[in-house]
Specification:
The chain is largely without helices or strands. The protein is 8% helix and 9% strand. The protein contains 1 helix and 2 strands, in the order αββ. Strands 1-2 form a two-stranded antiparallel sheet.
């Protein structure tokens, strides 16, 4: 299996009841990528640069859509202060 999951991995979701006259509609939802990666028996992290959003028209044709991805804030180890050498 390729180490590049983005070549075949996708998560479908559906947004409904948006008027056809709308061009840019903000939506927000949480995706736990770790859960989905584990579900397919893989490990690793998601390369944020590989994420794409597509819209399907009534004929099933894909159109890439603009989007903004904001990762969850992750806890970090406390910052260590370095002592200056003398």
């Amino acid at each position: 299996m390729s180490r590049f999951l983005y070549k075949y991995f996708s998560l479908p979701f559906e947004v409904r009841n948006i008027p056809e006259s709308c061009e840019f509609v903000p939506i927000s939802f949480h995706i736990d990528f770790t859960k989905y990666i584990e579900k397919i028996g893989q490990t690793g992290i998601v390369d944020e640069r590989s994420i794409r959003l597509y819209c399907l028209d009534s004929n099933g044709k894909e159109f890439e859509q603009p989007f903004q991805f904001s990762p969850d804030i992750e806890s970090r180890y406390p910052t260590k202060h370095l002592k200056a050498e003398r």
